[in-house]
Amino acid sequence: MQQMQKRDDWWKQAVVYQIYPRSFKDSNKDGIGDIAGITSKISYLDYLGVDAIWLSPFYPSELVDGGYDVIDYRNVDPRLGTMADFDTMTATAHSHGIKVIVDIVPNHTSDHHPWFQEALASPKGSEARNRYIFRDGRGPDGSIPPTDWISEFGGSAWKQVEDGQWYLHIFASEQPDLNWKNADVREDFKRTLRFWSDHGTDGFRIDVAHGLAKDVLNRPLEELNQWTLQNKDNPDGSNPLWDRPEVHDIYREWRKVFDEYTPARFAVGEAWVEPDHQYRYASKNELGQVFNFEFAKANWDSSEIRNAIEDGLQTAERSRSTATWVMSNHDLVRHASRYALPQIHSRTQHQLAKDWVLRNGESYEENRVLGTQRARAAILLEMGLPGSVYIYQGEELGLFEVADIPWERLEDPTAVRSKGPLKEKGRDGCRVPLPWDDHDSPEPASWNQKFGQNGTFGFSTCKSGQFVKPHLPQPMWFARFCVNREESDPSSMLSLYRQAIAKRARLLTEMPNTSLTWLTDYDDPKVIAYTRSCSSGNGKLAVITNFGERPIPLPAGSIVLASLEIVDNLLPRDATAWILLE
């Protein structure tokens, strides 16, 4: 157990590992990952060295949106296990010194949620409907949606019910938005936070944290129609949908719930807001942390990444919290692939990567050697930064995006519902089940992008002598990235992650240390270099990343860790080194 785990503020400098439960490990041979599967791999997570695990939704769901359409917020989906399984998993994690964070989805419910079913059976203006956002339509007979808004998954953001009213759904039509001005909604989510805290949960990740408070029930429809769902800017508080000032009242109420426990629970918000507003969510009176998505948005470009670091540090300073650093998650094209593609700035984040996925990975060259090299450099750059690091399952193996999943096998609603210029293939390429063991999947004679038919790379096992297909297909090239292979290879991505996490804990986070100093020795915009004071008075650690064309000299000192081999004290292109300065 790391020293920091003994502190109540463990989360301020933690390494958090995100688990997408349905794709992590299948224990009951049905092709879907489950809670018991997570428990079976706690020793692997301990071996990796992480401080906490964050579980994406595992609640009862129709799986319209990968579990983010929740039917029951205080239970486990029977396909994934039971509450007893959750309690066993939590106890096992805690016995290894690993904290547990669960995903809370407060913006919307499933349309199968008892509340929404009650709303459909209730008349206009009823208390049941007031828990959601219902409005009359436009036109003489109300047959036109209240506004022209296009949902995040494509199509109208409104759906009409039998009596003619329309309800708002920012995402899929099966995900009706809640009305957070309703007292029932507020109180029920407090009960949910207490429920999971009572079951040993140490913290929460808040989905769509910037979207809860909406001002759409009383404004004239003509005024609302001037906005779009895709416009998330709100500098003056006039946006009716996103980042509204009232959302902070909700989180101040939640903070009182978190503080009922010893140690107090914490939360990290998914808030896609302008950097200048992020600090509000991370205040000690609200959630405590917020994701720095500027870092995840950045191309492999020194100026973009430096700006993202400075934005994250500024947010942390203004909130009096710590920064968060993330490169991949369940919603993003895996960064090893993003870094392997041409690095072209676009107005829309990762647009080139999304276009590449839409065209089954055939529109641009994916240089995997270069992508791996940059991903290795990126994790050392990230791990040296002050604050918390969030790792998405599989990135420690160096996994690339599976861009060529057959359309008929896709699960993400984006693939089906987006149309025209907004068409996307979706997020399934980063959600393919993990490859654990190559013994049940013989290596093909030639490597290609074909999908395996006889084996699941240890994700699942045989049932009645037959392999059960995983819920998303695994490409045959996954065999190169299986855990059993990488564990025995000292040059693997997994070995690099293990070393970086261990050295980070020993040198940088054993005692509180949440600042950095830019190293001015390099007068080169293609170099990012900073120093951190080491724990226990061990001097200073320099973290240096070379984005330039030519190798650069390293300062005098001992090489602690490097993403590539260092020859003649020169740092190669697209590489990072940690140097304990003399």
UniProtKB/TrEMBL annotation:
Keyword Hydrolase: yes
Source superkingdom: Bacteria
Keywords: Hydrolase
Domain Glycosyl hydrolase family 13 catalytic positions: 18-431
Hydrolase found in the keyword field: yes
InterPro entries recorded: GH, GH13_cat_dom, O16G_dom_2
Pfam family, one: Alpha-amylase
SMART domains attached to this UniProt entry: Aamy
Recorded GO MF terms: hydrolase activity
PANTHER family from the UniProt entry: ALPHA-AMYLASE FAMILY MEMBER (PTHR10357), NEUTRAL AND BASIC AMINO ACID TRANSPORT PROTEIN RBAT (PTHR10357:SF179)
Similarity field: Belongs to the glycosyl hydrolase 13 family.
Name of this chain's protein: Glycoside hydrolase family 13 protein
Annotated source species: Bifidobacterium kimbladii
